[in-house]
Hints:
By secondary structure, the protein is an alpha+beta fold.
Amino acid sequence: xxxxxxxxxxxxLFTTAVLADGAFYGDPPxxxxxxxxxxxxxxxxxxxxxxxxxxxxxxxxxxxxxxILFGGKPEEIEKWISxxxxxxxTKWVVKDSVLQCVPGSGYIRTKEEFADCQLHIEWSAPxxxxxxxxGRGNSGVFLMGAVEVQVxxxxxxxxxxxxxxxxxxxxxxxxxxxxxxPGEWQTYDIIxxxxxxxxxxxxxxxxxxxxxxxxxxxDHTPLEGGGGHMRRSKPKAFPEKGPLKIQDHGNPVRxxxxxxxxxxxxxxxxxxxxxxxxxxxxxxxxxxxxGIREDAAKLEGNTKMLRLFESLCYAENGGARELATVAxxxxxxxxxxxxxxxxxxxxxxxxxxxxxxRYLAQxxxxxxxxTAKNDLEAIIKxxxxxPKKK
Length: 390
Ligand code: MG
C-alpha cells in the first residue's frame, strides 16, 4: 500500500490532530538534506503576483517582485548610462514608450548590477529591412556585461549559427529560430547562472537558458567563459555582480519591457536547495531543530511532546529528549488507566502519538521497544484500531 493510501484512510479517523502536517511522514533529514521529504517546517515559497503576457500592441505587466529596468517611462533612461569609460549619459532615446538604440552612440549599461537572474526583454528590429547576415537588426543583450545573447533579425536571414538570434554568441547556436518578422516584437526570457569558482577551480561553468517568443532555444547551455567574436573563450570566474549591457551594432533596434528577478543561490554556490553540503546541512538542521523547540515551548500537552520529538529528527538535544520522554511516559500511564469502554474518545490521540513513536523507532531516533510505546501498541491491538490494509 502506498503512503497516500494510508493517509486517505487514516486522516478522517484522527480528527483530534493539531500537529503540523507532514511531521513523522516522509523520509527524515539526512547528511545532505536538512529537511524531511514533504517537510512542513520548510519555508513556504515566496508569494509572487504573476504579471501578464505581452501582445504586439502592448507590453505585459511584470511579476510583482521584478526589478524594472525599463518599463516605458521616459525618465527610466536614468537607469542606464553609456558604456563608455566615463559613464556619461547615453544618447539612446525613449520614444513612444520604447527604448531605441541610436547607432554610433555606443553600448548602454544599467546602473543596477546583479548576477543570477531571470531576465525578460523584448526587442524589435527595424521594419525597413537593410543589410544581411550580421548586418541586419543587430544588437545584443549582455548578461553581467559579458555574455551576449545575440539580438539579430534572422527572419529569412541566415548567418553563422553561433551568431544568430538568441545564440550565446560564439558558443552555441539556438536550437530553433522562432523569430517574428522585422518590426514585430520579439520576447526573450532568459535564465542566467554565473560560473562558480572555488580556490581558483571551476566547480560550475554557469548556465544560460533562453526562450524566444515562448520557444526554448538554449537549454541550460554551459557558459564556457562567456563567448565572444572570433576567439574561443576560456572558463572564467565572474565578479559578484555586473550590469546588463545592450549593444549598439549600428542598427536602430528598439527595446521594451525590460525587467529581472534575482534568483536564489544554487547548491554549488552555497544556497539552500534540495541538496546541500554536509557542513551546511548540519548547521541548517541545528537551526530547524532550535526553531521547533522554540515553537514547542509555546505549546502544551501532546502537541508539545510531539513537537519536541519532531525536533530530534533534525538534531539531538538532551533537554528536548528528556521532556518529551517524560511526557510520553505520563501519557501512556494515563491511557492505560482509562477504562476500556471509554478509550474510544482517546483513539485519535493514541494513534497519533503511536504513529510518531513508530516513525522515530523506524529511523533509530527512539528504541523499537520501550514501555510507553509497548503499552500504547497493546491498547491499539486490543481495541483493534489498526486501519485494515487493503
Ligand atoms: Mg550582437
